[in-house]
Amino acid sequence: MTNSKTAEAVTKPEYFRLPKPGTVDPHFGCSRSFWNGLILPTKQNGGKPPVRSIAVKKPDALRGIRMINFESARRFFEKVAQEADQKKDNRVEAA
Predict the structure, then answer these.
(1) Does residue 55 have a pLDDT over 60?
(2) pTM for the whole structure
(3) Which of 30, 54, 78, 81 has a 20 to 30 Å separation from 61 between CA atoms?
(4) Which value, in Å, is the radius of gyration of the alpha carbons in the chain?
(5) pLDDT of 9 higher than 60
């Protein structure tokens, strides 16, 4: 018998690693370049990334790994879905 809390932790981690080039993440199926546009400050997002992430590295290291906050990513996609539904509803009402 599986502990439901353990099963949930496996499917919904607190953070997941930015996928390697040429691959997609196992949770949302998005590429590294897609995530970079959401987690790094850019002109398109006004310098405020919509998805939270952290860089983890050893104190003397030049490089580290980028970890994406799962819940922040989930909320981003939920917001995108809600906005799409609203646009769809507005088009139906206008017709």
Answers:
(1) yes
(2) 0.78
(3) 30
(4) 17
(5) no
